[in-house]
Amino acid sequence: MGCVNGKCCSRYPSSPDGGSDHCGELRPYKSKHILTKRSLEIVHVSSHNFTLQYSILTQLGYYQDTVESENQDSFCIKTQIQCNPNVHVFGVFDGHGQYGAQFSNFFNDRLVEILSSDSTLLDDPLKAYTSAFLAINSELHDSEIDDTMSGTTAITVLVVGDTLYLANDGDSRVVIAVKNGDQILAEDLFMDQTSFRKDEYERVKLCGARVLSIDQGEEENEGSDPPRLWIPNGMYPGTAFTRSLGDSTAKKIGVIADPEISVVKLTPNNLFFVVASDGVFEFLPSRTVVNMVAAYTDPRDACAAIAGESYTLWLENEDRTDDIIIIIIQIKALWIPVVGWWCHR
Predict the structure, then answer these.
(1) Residues near 336 by Cβ (< 8 Å), separated by ≥ 6?
(2) Mean pLDDT of the chain
(3) Which carries the bigger pLDDT value, residue 3 or residue 47?
(4) 77 φ, ψ (degrees, to nearest 5)
């Protein structure tokens, strides 16, 4: 859910488009999925004897007044960072405002470049992450792209062996599935950075933001759409998130670029994790998304089902849809090649 003054914010989604940096050694299945138009891809984490099997789907949003709009969401998949077979990154970037697509792609490209060249990455991943986010935000401010009312949210997962290092600016989400007996539970690895959060609400209020519903009613924290942020004497920028990259006007009222960082140690009970934009989670709870993923063996089928359900729910509730992007990463035991194919050991 992005800026109110820009693009913010089918059962059978259209073909995905752009945004990935598929580097490193990928091992795709030979056939492409009929809906996602993608091969199912696999990368090994040899240090801990498991594989990541993943798929991506992006769905262009529908806007009645802008038929020929572009998808402002982008994603990043970079395997074997620094030629290390145990280090991989997955990210989702949700652009907003007039130049949102440029911002999301700028961040996408620069994050890979910075992490790939950072000699301290494995010594202190958390510090490297924070430095990268802030450096890119500074570069965005100094670039030729107008960030007055445009920017991007960003959420990334850096896999280092059996540990996930996560960084988040905004309201996209990472959800991990945890097997608990006969149940599969959904665990959000971040709380959305919106005014629904008391700590974020109080922080932006101290910076002078007015926090009002989109129709400029009284301050409220009810409903599904968080109240938006406005300057003291104007009706802009109207951001629903409290952290992002770019958005120089929103920075004046407390929207910051400092990412929240989280560390998760994988266990045998972790089945998969999902990285997706708020276009997915606006009407689908994390619990539902995890249930839908668990219902499919092939993550491409799950991507298509979730994108289709999200799209349908948007149109049932509003006269538009947001852009949708989803990456599903399954965590599987080691596979070994047999006669040019893959079989489970």
Answers:
(1) 342, 343, 345
(2) 85
(3) 47
(4) -130, 115
Question: Is the entire prediction scored with pTM above 0.90?
Answer: no
> Residue 274 sits in a domain of what CATH number?
3.60.40.10
Count of structural domains within the chain: 1
Give the pairing of strands 151-160 and 163-169: antiparallel
Q: Is residue 278 part of a domain?
A: yes
HSE (CB half, 13 Å, CA atoms) of 322? 30
Residue range(s) defining the domain that contains residue 128: 40-59+71-192+257-332
pLDDT tens string 25-72: 444 445 666 665 667 889 999 999 999 999 999 888 776 666 666 788
Give the tokens for residue 178.
Answer: 């945890």
Helices (H) and strands (E) in the chain, counts: 7, 17
